[in-house]
Amino acid sequence: DARVTQTPRHKVTEMGQEVTMRCQPILGHNTVFWYRQTMMQGLELLAYFRNRAPLDDSGMPKDRFSAEMPDATLATLKIQPSEPRDSAVYFCASGLALTGVSGANVLTFGAGSRLTVL
Amino acid sequence: QKEVEQDPGPLSVPEGAIVSLNCTYSNSAFQYFMWYRQYSRKGPELLMYTYSSGNKEDGRFTAQVDKSSKYISLFIRDSQPSDSATYLCAMSARGGATNKLIFGTGTLLAVQP
Lengths: 118, 113
Prior knowledge:
The complex is a heterodimer. By secondary structure, chain A is mostly beta strands. Chain A has strands spanning 5-7, 10-13, 19-24, 31-38, 42-50, 53-56, 65-71, 74-79, 88-95, 107-109, 113-117. In chain A, the strands form 2 sheets. In chain A, strands 2, 4, 5, 6, 9, 10 and 11 form a 7-stranded mixed sheet that branches. In chain A, strands 1-3-8-7 form a 4-stranded antiparallel sheet, with no helix packed on it. By secondary structure, chain B is mainly β. In chain B, 0% of the residues lie in helices and 57% in strands. Chain B has no helices and 11 strands. The termini of chain B are far apart.
């Protein structure tokens, strides 16, 4: 079964430390999304890429978050410096955006990275 | 106001009951409607996907879209304890760079044996 791989699965860190989360999308998928999930807000879109180009990162706090796709097999989400309010589960998802009139993204999610910032 | 609203529940039903899960939305540009199921400590997985208005059936699951009311539903017939999970609706607009997927907050469903 093709799947999205996320690392680390769990991360506990102290406030002010840098956190990097990594994602390996499904081979052949051309979109990658980063979501953050909390009990209060549910799934919030942080950033997304199409063919490795960033399309929308309006959901990210720009002063501390950054998202990149150095190549087609790796997406990263970095938080520097981390704060307790960043504690959440971060999901990466990849999909295949169809061209032409049907532009739906049907996404496959990874298992998530659970971040705790003390 | 959020673009997609969903009652968080929790919703508790006995085994065999018919379950109705719903979402409302405000963005009339949404054309693609999906339901994801998320088990505890797992990532969401796609359950059903519909385009525009109408119904779609897959086994015990039926998805309905009413674009005139900006309202979508997921029905689960003969619910089973294994259906216990959080159900998230998701939507996207048609085509281009606007096709980012927006999720509801999810409804927690518990099916009691």
